[in-house]
Design a protein that fits this description.
about 30% strand; about 80 residues; binds zinc ion; three-stranded antiparallel beta sheet; globular; first zn-finger domain of poly(adp-ribose) polymerase-1
Length: about 80
Amino acid sequence: MMSRTISLISAKNGKPKYLIAKKLCKCSKCKTLIRASQKCVEVPMIAGAYTNKKRYCLNCFRLVLNQTIKDIEQLKEELD
Ligand SMILES: [Zn+2]
């Protein structure tokens, strides 16, 4: 039986997800305030034995996503 194919962003630590902030917090990248009821993104980051969750505003997450796509395209190029 074939094992399930994993995705680089859906390891057991979970993948990024959109959520509505419940309380005031700060974007991990630009330090902009994310207010309650504002849409933001939570990204799980493995730090040693535990998973650390980082919050990003939508602008920063767009940059993170673009960088991720670049990295993946680079890997794909090197594959061929
Ligand atoms: Zn930000």
